[in-house]
Amino acid sequence: MFPVLMLILFGAIDGGRLVIDRFMVSYAAVVGGRVASVRSTTSVTAVQNAVIAAAPYLGLSPTSITVAVNGTTQTDATFATHPTGSPNTVTVTVTYTYRAGWLPFYNRAAKTLTGTSQVILE
């Protein structure tokens, strides 16, 4: 009975970690969208740093954060210089791979979590 109880306990812990990580990924994408929507933010690096700071527990890297304006992925520091006449949409996408840590047989299974925020460039 004890091994079954431990399996249920550690399974609940891993399930809780999955839910928390999913919320953190979504929150980080929203924070990145807010930072990217401000015209004074001209750097993709500033958006990536804001996303990383919003979810320090996840250990995100800049390569897991994508910033796009009007569907075009941005890698330079000029994404905020698009024309002001038309509404420009900024999309911030955060990708994180969750791995269960407590259950050894489940440790091989990985789940990709994705958070996306889409805002109008002010």
Structural notes for this entry:
With 122 residues, this protein is an alpha+beta fold. The chain has one domain. It is built from two helices and four strands; from the N terminus they run ααββββ. The chain has helices at 2-37, 44-54; strands spanning 65-69, 72-73, 89-99, 110-120. A four-stranded antiparallel sheet has the order 2-1-3-4. The mean pLDDT is 82.
Give descriptors for this structure:
2 helices; 122 residues; alpha+beta; four-stranded antiparallel beta sheet
As laid out across the biggest beta sheet, the strand order is 2-1-3-4
Tally the helices: what do you get?
Answer: 2
Using only CA atoms, what is the Rg? 18 Å
What structural category characterises the helix and strand content?
Answer: alpha+beta
